[in-house]
Amino acid sequence: MTLSLFEDAALYQAQREELCPGATVLRGFAAPNEAAIFEALGYITAQAPFRHLITPGGFRMSVAMTNCGSYGWVSDLTGYRYDATDPESGKPWPGMPDVFMNLAQAAAASGGFDDFEPDVCLINRYEAGARLSLHQDKNERGFSAPIVSVSLGIPAVFLWGGSQRKDKPVRIPLAHGDVMVWGGPARLRYHGILPVKEGCHPLSGAHRINLTFRKAV
Ligand code: MD3
Ligand code: FE
């Protein structure tokens, strides 16, 4: 049996873990929509292929990225920013598919944040060995909206830190379909992803894909 996103709230309730005020893990929340999500990813990456961005410090990121929505997160030697144009194509980013928007809004509401209106979906692709070191997400214009993150494909270990870089992070395993909502007091916590182990998933092959929905502007 396949449940739609909006069915059986009681079942999802049982899968909800509140890590701290404002931070909620929704285990398997995206799984019912996996086929539509991967179909949409195909359209997005045909227009805006995954690429390895360069950090302001001159390093090539091990995570490959692309975006959809009104803006996209980009990095180059001049810094990090949100831009309405894909610098590779000179065109606007692909639009946010309905299945993405509906999933992000349903997850935000389930995490306690009504009226989430994301204008960016940053899409991260990890291959074996790729990682994201501890950082804060603070390129957005405001921090009142939550961030919704969707894990797809091969598993990874999420590092959930504190409000200072030196705070020792807690390790949280993330599997295909898991969704996390970060808002309120949790919004500016340090976080990262440990180097991803080799694996294979029927929908993503050797990759882990992460969607992060943000209100950037
Ligand atoms: C906690 N991505 O793209 S998503 C990122 O799995 C990013 O690709 C990771 O961190 C990934 O910036 C982690 C989970 C996440 C996203 C944003 C957060 C956790 C967060 C913002 C504040 C606190
Ligand atoms: Fe982040």
Task: Outline the structure in words.
- This protein has 217 residues and is α+β, with helices and mostly antiparallel strands.
- It has one domain: Sandwich (Jelly Rolls), CATH 2.60.120.
- The protein contains 3 helices and 13 strands, in the order αββαβββαββββββββ.
- The chain has helices at 9-14, 34-47, 98-110; strands at 16-20, 23-26, 64-69, 72-76, 79-83, 120-126, 132-135, 147-153, 156-160, 170-174, 179-182, 191-193, 208-214.
- The strands form 3 sheets. It has a 7-stranded antiparallel beta sheet with strand order 1-2-11-8-13-6-3.
- β4 (72-76) and β5 (79-83) form a beta hairpin.
- The protein is globular, with a radius of gyration of 16 Å.
- The N and C termini lie far apart (39 Å).
- The model has no long low-confidence stretch (mean pLDDT 95).
- The structure holds N-(carboxycarbonyl)-S-(naphthalen-2-ylmethyl)-L-cysteine (MD3) and fe (iii) ion (FE).
- Fe (iii) ion (FE) binds next to loops.
| Amount of helix | 10-25%
| Strand order in the largest sheet | 1-2-11-8-13-6-3
Secondary-structure element pattern, one letter each: HEEHEEEHEEEEEEEE
Top CATH class: Mainly Beta
Uncertain spans? none
Please identify which CATH superfamily we are dealing with. Answer: Alpha-ketoglutarate-dependent dioxygenase AlkB-like
Beta-strand percentage range: 25-35%
List keywords for this structure.
single chain; four-stranded antiparallel β-sheet; alpha+beta; 13 strands; binds N-(carboxycarbonyl)-S-(naphthalen-2-ylmethyl)-L-cysteine; 217 residues; globular; binds fe (iii) ion; Jelly Rolls
